[in-house]
Amino acid sequence: MKVTRLLFLLLVVGIHPLAAQYEKGLEFGRVSKEDRQLTTVPGDSTASAYVLYDHLDLAYRYNDTDGPSLFETHHRRVKLLKPASFDLANVSLHYDRDHQSIDNLRAVIHLPDGGTIQLRDTDFVSDRDSDGRATVKFTFPRVVAGAIIEYTYSRSQESILSPTVYYFQESIPVRWAEYTALIPPYYQYMSLANPAQYHLKEAKLSLAEFGPSFGVVTYGSRVNGIEHSELRWVMKDLAAFERQPYTNNAEDYIPRIRLQLQKVQYPGEGPRPIFSDWEETVNSLHDRQDFGRYYRKKGNYAKLWKAAEDAIAAAGSDREKIEAAYRFVIDRLSWNGNYGVLASASPNAVLDDGTGNSADLNICLLALLNEAGITAHPLLVSLRNSGAPIEVYPVVNQFDHLMVYTELGGQPFLLDANDPDRPAGLPRVAALNHRGWVADPDRPRWIDIDVPAARRIVMQEISVTEDGTASVALRSRLESYFAFSARSELRNAKTPAEAPLAAEIIARFPEAEVTMPGTVAASDVPTAPLDYSLKLRIPSAATAVNDYLYVQPLLLSVLDDELDDVERRLYPIDFEFPWEQRFIVNIRVPEGYVLDETPPALKVRAEDGSMEGTYATNVMVDGAVTLIFNVSLTRTFYPADQYTGLRDMYRRIIELQNSPLVFRREH
Questions:
Q1: Keywords on this record (predicted)?
Q2: How far from 474 is each of 252, 458, 500, 531, CA to CA, in Å?
Q3: Which position among 34, 183, 229, 477 has the lowest Cβ density within 10 Å, counted as fewest Cβ atoms?
């Protein structure tokens, strides 16, 4: 058994020589004179802070009442080099107070000119919320450039299923990052770590005490200890992680250790697999009170159904029933700001309370749809920037959010109740993480999270005076996510300048002022496109120079400069949703001016046809100039190695949206 298990460890982590530096770890509270006097990060003089040491240690505890639990110790030391880093001296440690605890917290600050200040117990403040989450907060005193902050604490956790994910690289440079683990032989974990170049990767078998004496000689006893798997991963001299715009799930590209319990086997017992398959996982979920039973057992939602029945029964088609159920939930229940895949209460209780987490609201919707005869299932997703979903193993705790999957005309129709401005069929943007798992007991499956393309058609009438002042009458039709976003902005705007389109134009042209507040078509409903109009005066949209007028015809941006500001793309480009934007601009200038210069007509198209752009101008009989600019995007994910081919297209589109038309006075 020894040989087999050690061979397994070697295959997982490999063996490398031990490093001399930090071999035994750093002693808390003692720093070297060199570190106190350090003023810059080697190789990066611009860095505002430097992680000198970060170590997470995983161990296990056992008691006869509760069984095994995780015990993690975190030791962190950070050099604050510039005032921009002083926010790091405000520390918040989060945990789930129902299943976790934080103890043994110590913190000190080492001053650059000598001396160390230790925080007192009264400096640690605990906050709790109503959803089971808790936070310990503390602030280091006398923070100055050159100070070193240091703290250590332990986190206990009842579940041994998923230890804390450890990230080696950070937004600031790291000198030394280390993860160690001492795992009892009864628990076999799989590593979901992403590839990395480790300074050290070690694995060996070590004796340690754990758990009860099973009376089996090969496993030893409490006195002599049993053979644990002792693992060590180390990375050093890491540059700051470089984030790039339009990157989703950035943490997937940071070197990390992520362990997931795969199998448990105690002496004298057969193996108990933690992972079986998705079929067993979905059955287990539907047996849970806070998942399947809440929307499948009528006693849990009878009161909810009674309140909604008349509105749903009055609907005719399946589409109308879905809309009625969706509208009932978003009108009667509010989202409390928390995500979840498990409900916090029954649908009846959620109705009484009037609020709930994302699972509460969507489980209420599931109950109504199924009772109305509409086949619907839970749809579990990881939120954007929570990591790409793992489809090979049934890892349920990777999911953050529960939505509803149903079909219309044989096509998926995704529901995500929480906002009166967002119609059925449009999940919240945070949930658009490409893939989701349908918890259908008969056919659990992964699906693409596809949504309708958002469209924005903007018509601009621009009149320019002799001195270059531009008066703009703007009419727009917004669909899908553009309409939803605009309705939300309208609801929250306190002034006309904060309203849809106006705020975007003023951000680009700060001197712009709204001369007629935005108006919405009288027949506006959330399920329809939003027709929106407003008028502005924009002095900086045109410039008069001698006999020339330079007019900026495109007041809204299609793409921003962040898409073309790097020569090498490190991570995939990930747009939130497909879209199409079309601008029709009519420009009138004072009599006597003629169009002198304009960008040439253009039609560009990505190799796979997923992105297209067209640009054309035309002089009308009455002297007005018409410009049509159209850009569409049907694909939302592009691997990093395709960036070079797309970059020229991005740059051309950005150049066109920033290019003025030049008019010349005729003599």
A1: Signal
A2: 42, 7, 12, 11
A3: 34
CB 54 within 8 A of CB 176: yes
**CA 104 – CA 153 distance, rounded (Å):** 5
Residues 246 and 135 in one domain: yes
Residue 131 has what pLDDT?
Answer: 66
Residue written as token pair 């962040």: 562
As for how many domains the chain has, the answer is: 3
The per-residue b/e assignment along 422-440, b for 16 or more CB within 10 angstroms, e otherwise, is bbbbbbbebbbbbebbbbb
CA 521/CA 455 separation, integer angstroms? 17
Q: What is the pLDDT of residues 517-547, one digit of tens each?
A: 988 976 678 888 999 999 999 998 999 999 9
- Amino acid letter, residue 347: P
Residues 386 and 514 in one domain: no
Query: Domain of 657: which CATH number?
Result: 2.60.120.1130
**CA proximity to 148, closest of 86, 75, 77:** 77
Residue type, 655: E
Q: Are residues 429 and 486 in the same domain?
A: no
Please check the confidence at residue 1 and state whether its pLDDT lies above 80. Answer: no
Q: Which residues on neighbouring strands pair with residue 287, listed in sequence order?
A: none
Q: Which two tokens stand for residue 459?
A: 């018509």
The number of helix segments (H) and strand segments (E) in the chain equals: 11, 37
pLDDT band with cut points at 50, 70 and 90 for residue 20: low
Residue 33 has which token pair? 């004179």
Average pLDDT score over the chain? 90
Domain shared by 282 and 426, yes or no: yes
595 and 471 both lie in a single domain: yes
Per residue, the 3-state secondary structure of 287-324, as one string, reads CCHHHHHHHHCHHHCHHHHHHHHHHHHCCCCHHHHHHH
Across 11-20, 164-173, 590-599, least confident range = 11-20
What pLDDT does 25 receive?
78
pLDDT at residue number 622: 81
DSSP 579: E
Answer for the pair 301, 350: CB distance below 8 angstroms, yes or no: no
Neighbours of 7 (CB within 10 A): 11
Domain-ending residue, one of 219, 246, 272 = 272
Q: Three-state SS for 136?
A: strand
User: Structural domain of residue 484, as residue ranges?
Assistant: 454-665
Claim to verify: residue 255 and residue 142 sit in the same structural domain: yes
Q: Are 449 and 420 in contact (CB under 8 A)?
A: no
